[in-house]
Amino acid sequence: MQYLLKLCVETKYIVSHNIAVPDGISNGSPCILKKVIYGQLCEKDSRERIPIRAYVQFEKESTGEKTRQRLQNIIKADGITHNNWTPIQRICRSFSLNENTHIQVTRNQLPLLPSNAQTIHCSQSCTYDNILVFLNKNLSRKLLYTACSRVTSLTGLYLSGIYKKPARATLENDPSLREMTRMRDEAQLQFSLIFPEDVKNQDNMIVLFHNVRSLNLHFQNISCDPTFIASDIIMLAETWSKPEDKYDINNFTIISRTDCRSPKRKAFGTLIYAKNYLLPHVKILFQNESISGTNHFTIVALTIFNQTVMMVYKSPKASWNLVKQQLQQAITMSLKNQIYDISIMGDFNIKYQVSDPDFNSLKDFMKGNNCFMMLDTTKVSTDHNSLIDLCFSTNETRNAHIFESVTSDHKPIWIELSMS
Fold first, then answer.
1. If we measure between CA atoms, which residue out of 242, 247, 246 comes closest to residue 265?
2. Does residue 1 or residue 154 have the better pLDDT?
3. Which residue of 105, 296, 371, 415 sits 20 to 30 Å from the alpha carbon of 49, by its own alpha carbon?
4. Residue 294: is its pLDDT beyond 80?
5. What are the φ and ψ backbone dihedral angles of 113, each rounded to 5 degrees?
6. Predicted local confidence at residue 119, as pLDDT
7. Residue in 37, 18, 20 with CA at minimum distance from that of residue 28
């Protein structure tokens, strides 16, 4: 903070300290001084009238909005009627007099700095439409880059002085270049998500399940999401849909759908899409829905290219024993049709961990039907750190993954099947 701060209304300043970072008032925030409020500091024998508060207008109107709300009584007492003027109050900062003494000095000052001209270091958080950079031979490559990158476009960049090309960056003289080279060669980051659209080809088929938490609310997001559109079969649960709702997606046909039966939308409803080219090959083998109050479960089994794909949705309070009985019927029906390649996916609302009372029963049931867990059990399928959206298959070679959702607290899961 400056020992002597000159204040001039309608002049550009920057905030010199982090005052309210979440509110945008941080070191380097540009503003224009609009008014100065004078008063007295609460100190003994000090009746001198000095600037105690400055009102500034930030470039972005949203900057300082929370501060203005918090200090609205002070703003009203100062007679300020402009909605976008933000009060900046004096702050105290202590520092050592020098390196060789323990004497502390406390400075009480307004945290502002004149900024019609400023150092390159102070400009690092600022962006301007027009800037003038004063060049000198001592400007390093880093400082020159920082200065010239403060402007929004080259048309607003002006240079004054003699330009001297900085030394070329090499591994020997530039630590940043060394670090970038190290990261490329030795420490490459591997993206953890596998996109279905990246593995889709003419020989495979992508089946995706998602507890969408209201298709009615998120249909626009779902219908244009590249991951959903790249899938061949889309299975959705908790659609919150009503019979009159229309959810048409280009190149897809709805082959199975259940809706809310009450006048009010609730966490019910399922919907299955299939790509149009698959329609001659898709057959609904089994379908069962049970609703009793908040106890709700749905099971749909499809056959396609000598494979069975089952969607399961079980509400949190629904009985796993009842679901298990219906699921066993679907599996038995698939086996009677001599279809042994079976994949089961959905929201079981059973945590895949020992602490869940139904975990062992679920695990034993799947093992008894020769079904293997296909997802990485170290991952979670919800934003609540639980793995309850599950995928099983009798074919251990299948690829299945957990994806990400921008609309639901459940993550989509998908499995790669064969086209033949």
1. 242
2. 154
3. 105
4. no
5. -135, 135
6. 84
7. 18
| Contacts (Cβ under 8 Å, ≥6 apart) of 280 | none
Query: pTM, whole model, 2 decimals?
Result: 0.63
User: What are the angstrom distances between the C-alpha of 339 and each of 207, 246, 285, 302, 336?
Assistant: 18, 34, 11, 11, 7
Q: Which long-range contacts (CB under 8 A, 24 or more apart) does 168-176 make?
A: 169/141, 174/141
One-letter amino acid at 90 equals: R
Q: Give me the amino acid identity at 47.
A: R
B/e letters for 159-198, b = 16+ CB within 10 Å, e = fewer, are eeeeeeeeeeeeeeebeeeeeeeeeeeeeeeeeeeeebee
